[in-house]
UniProtKB/TrEMBL annotation:
Binding positions for ATP per the UniProt entry: 367-374
Lineage per the UniProt record: Bacteria, Bacillati, Actinomycetota, Actinomycetes, Micromonosporales
Organism: Paractinoplanes toevensis
Protein name according to UniProt: Cell division protein FtsK
Keywords of the record: ATP-binding, Cell cycle, Cell division, Nucleotide-binding
Occurrences of domain FtsK (ranges): 349-557
Origin: domain of life: Bacteria
A Pfam family it matches: FtsK_SpoIIIE
Membrane among keywords: no
Length: 861
């Protein structure tokens, strides 16, 4: 208790000393007993001080604001050291600007709060002068107004969006947050990247009034900041200091390194600045003149300055793609043993690095349409591609929306380069293709598991080290799979969704251990039916949540950090979307700015070509699935191999399977029973698929080793049949027949292929040898390739269920699911759509979705 009493006495004594000093200054100024100086000398001195003030505080810093033009250029010398408080008036007709040193020197305290109209106006004047005079963007302001609710700073609200001045704190917690930010300014976090241009920036904390219930802890923190601040570019303007000495905790001495202003009526007294004096006598502690503080500045002036600063800040703080990339000599130098990392944006001046490792293995990205999701992902992929070589990182990219998000990374007609890290890229992907990619990643995880057991390790980094010690030249890369609009893959509750959810859960839970990582991006993660039972088990493995405008549902429901985000910004949360107390500092959450990567196409093009030029000479382009693209027989590798004589047994090639490799959809034609192919569909594309099948079969045979009988029974097939006959004729025997000729050719005496366009157009009963050909033909080298516009005639002609096994190859185009299920005799998951077909092989019991081969002319339709 004795110590407590002593502290009270000491604090009270310090406060009395400060008050006594101010009162002595006021008394001296008001005293008429002191001998007056020579008026001529006073006027001469005032002129000298006016001239000195014009030099020390030019333009915005010292000119009368009511006469200042809104067109006066902003900026000037850094830092703007001297600033005007008002007009000193030693005599009734002698005046000069009262200026003090502030930025770069110390602080300013006023013994009255902004509830005094003169202090209210002075604070606005000081803010306006300093902001206008400092180089744009070099002065950051943090404000506190605990009594006035922020009214002092209301005219400066436009600076909030520019990042120059946060909304003012109005309560004790807000004051604590401001002091915490100021403390960080003094002591940047350990391991933090250096602030960009830190030496060219200052922070100014302006306290218009202390909040109610402010306690000694906050007051001591203010005093500590005052002591250390100037050396780190931190300065304070505190109105209402010292606070009333109500308790020992709230009784405070004058702040160190501070110029004190004591407000009287109607003038003020200005104390000596830090380390200097206004007077010539050693005992002088104040300016020996009454000072009339500047009034509230003209509103139009404040508005003009704030608008110009905001515009400059918007341009100056624009993040470019170059800001996210490594230095040129660091391109592709990263090692992925312990993880991947890249800059995703800037939090203020600080680049924010996000990583893929054991702690943050997967990311979940949300944002409404047009929020910049694609731009963010492209930034991340180019950032990673620039930091790591293809030997360190492999990419699988899937885009399920109607767009070309990842066409950026594949060869095109105009630009044959590609991102060498890309292994497979799906543009407007089908769900089947997405499922195929997940299957491949799951298989890769299994292969790596075997490698772990063989090497006797449990960590990815250890496996790479063992491989290096064994002399393996190529390290095992980390794998990153990016799925944009992943909810499309999981839509509904069908077998595809069910299997995809199971694979995603497996990859999410175990992938980190094997160097396999995921980015799932979507407009919404809510309402995905297939995830109802698995949401927590899957998303719980995604600690990194990135919310763009409209993407707040990737955060916890109580976390509203993404509300009101402007375009080009994102909330980055590394705690699974968890928030925290409103207004509290969240170490796990940052708001970053990120660029539009296409804003500087030259930089983007140069980077892409540089990465492509540095690829391994043996590197091949990524496997590309473009959901909107047609497939052509001439581009198929199996067909080309057949033309070159490198193929084995004959097969009808009908399209490309929707798998990662886009394998050729082939139906083998051997001597097994039922090796005939029937194509179903009312559209003319059926004739094009039949044409491709016949051409491919011809390519498998050496010249003059087989025979083709070609018939077109419908107008849609006439031209194709003629062109097909003309192309095959130089290599094989070809006979072009009509319906009557076809009936005669349905015999088993001459091996070969019967190719029929529109077979359902034949008159009922006009093909008596058809069933025998179907049943016995393959064993005698006779195969039927046919296109049917309806299933009913096919069933009638082939004998119904009794002849079901006689045609093993069935390709369905625009045939309803119910009809397909009836034909196959079992339920089937099939949704007919343009440029897709379902291939079923009865004998292999295999059903796959394919992209059918069409004529090149179809691309123009």
């Amino acid at each position: 208790m004795a110590d407590s009493g002593l502290r009270v006495q000491q604090a009270a004594a310090l406060h009395r000393q400060a008050v006594a000093t101010a009162e002595a200054a006021a008394a001296a100024l008001e005293s008429e007993a002191a001998p007056a100086a020579d008026p001529l000398e006073q006027h001469s001195l005032a002129e000298q001080l006016r001239a000195a003030a014009a030099v020390l505080a030019p333009g915005w810093l010292g000119s009368p604001l009511d006469a200042q033009s809104a067109n006066t250029p902003l900026g000037g010398v850094y830092p703007p050291q001297f600033v005007r408080l008002g007009v000193a008036q030693p005599l009734d007709d002698a005046r000069f600007p009262a200026i003090i040193p502030l930025l770069g020197t110390g602080h300013l305290t006023i013994d009255a709060s902004a509830t005094d109209a003169r202090v209210f106006g002075l604070l606005r004047c000081l803010l306006l002068r300093l902001l206008a005079a400092a180089p744009p963007g070099s002065l950051l302001v943090r404000a506190v107004d605990g009594v006035g609710g922020g009214a002092v700073f209301a005219p400066f609200a436009d600076l909030a969006d520019a990042g120059l001045m946060e909304p003012p704190a109005t309560d004790r917690q807000g004051l604590r947050d401001v002091l915490a930010e100021a403390d960080k300014w003094l002591r940047p976090g350990r391991g933090a990247l250096p602030r960009r241009s830190r030496r060219d920036r200052m922070m100014l904390v302006v306290i218009a009034s202390l909040p109610e219930l402010t306690e000694g802890e906050e007051l001591r923190r203010i005093a500590a900041l005052a002591q250390q601040g100037p050396d780190s570019g931190l300065h304070l303007i505190v109105a209402g200091w010292p606070p009333p000495p109500l308790t020992a905790e709230t009784t405070q001495p004058p702040l160190p390194r501070t110029t004190m202003v004591s407000v009287r009526n109607p003038y003020a007294v200005i104390g000596d600045p830090p380390g200097a004096t206004f007077g010539s006598a050693p005992e002088a502690q104040w300016l020996n003149a009454r000072v009339f503080l500047d009034d509230d500045p003209p509103p139009h002036l404040v508005d003009a300055v704030c608008r110009e600063l905001a515009a400059h800040s918007a341009a100056a703080t624009q993040v470019s793609l170059s800001d996210l990339l490594p230095e040129p000599d660091e391109i592709a130098k990263g090692e992925a043993a312990d993880g991947l990392g890249t800059v995703v944006g800037h939090d203020g001046d600080t680049p924010l690095v996000l990583r893929f490792n054991d702690l943050t293995p997967h990311w979940l990205v949300g944002g409404r349409s047009g929020a910049g999701k694609t731009a963010f992902l492209i930034n991340v992929l180019y950032g990673l591609g620039a930091r790591y070589s293809p030997a360190e990182m492999a990419l699988y990219l899937l885009d399920f929306k109607e767009g070309v998000s990842f066409a950026e990374f594949v060869p095109t007609r105009r630009d044959r380069t590609w991102l060498p890290h890309a292994r497979a890229v799906g543009v407007e992907s089908d769900r089947e293709y997405g499922l195929a990619v997940l299957r491949e990643l799951d298989a890769e995880m299994t292969r790596r598991s075997v490698a772990y057991k063989r090497a006797g390790v449990t960590r990815f980094a250890d496996l790479r080290q063992v491989a290096a010690e064994e002399g393996q030249q190529r390290p095992m890369p980390r794998v990153l799979c990016v799925i944009d609009e992943f909810q499309v893959l999981l839509a509904g509750n069908d077998p595809i969704a069910t299997e995809a959810v199971g694979l995603l859960e497996s990859l999410a839970r175990k992938g980190r251990s094997y160097g396999i990582h995921l980015i799932l991006a979507s407009q919404t993660v809510l309402g995905v039916e297939a995830l109802y039972a698995k949401r927590d088990s899957i998303f719980g493995q995604f600690p990194v949540r990135i919310a763009l405008p409209g993407g707040g549902d990737v955060l916890e429901p109580t976390n509203d950090a993404a509300a009101g985000l402007p375009l080009g910004t994102a909330v980055v949360n590394t705690a699974g979307g968890l928030g925290g107390p409103r207004g509290a500092t969240r170490g796990h959450e940052r708001v970053v700015r990120f660029p539009d990567p296409h804003a500087d196409r030259e930089v983007l093009s140069q980077l892409r070509h540089k990465l492509w030029g540095a690829r391994d000479p043996e590197a091949v382009p990524p496997r590309i699935f473009a959901g909107y693209a047609h497939q052509h027989l001439a581009d198929d590798p199996t067909y080309r191999a057949a033309l070159a004589g490198r193929a084995a047994r004959p097969a009808a090639l009908v399209g490309r399977v929707i798998d990662v490799n886009l394998s050729t959809a082939a139906f083998p034609l051997d001597s097994s029973p039922g090796r005939h192919l029937a194509i179903f569909g009312s559209q003319a594309s059926g004739s094009e698929v039949l044409d491709a099948a016949a051409r491919s079969v011809a390519a498998f045979h050496p010249p003059r080793t087989t025979r083709f009988v070609i018939a077109s029974l419908v107008a849609e097939g006439d031209q194709l049949a003629e062109r097909l006959a003309a192309e095959i004729a130089p290599r094989q025997e070809v006979t072009l027949v009509d319906a009557a000729g076809l009936a005669a050719e349905l015999d088993l005496e001459r091996p070969g292929y019967r190719v029929v366009f529109g077979m359902d157009a034949a008159s009922p009963g006009s093909l008596p040898g058809l069933r025998q050909l179907l049943r016995e033909g393959p064993g005698r080298g006779v195969h039927l390739l046919s296109w049917w516009r309806g299933l009913r005639r096919f069933t009638e002609e082939t004998g119904g269920s009794a002849g079901r096994e006689d045609v093993a190859g069935l390709l369905f185009l625009n045939v309803p699911q119910s009809d397909v299920a009836l034909m196959l005799g079992r339920p089937i998951d099939w949704h007919p759509r343009p440029n897709r077909a379902l291939l079923h092989d009865r004998h292999a019991d295999r059903t796959v979705t394919v992209v059918p081969f069409l004529q090149p002319e179809s691309d123009e339709l």
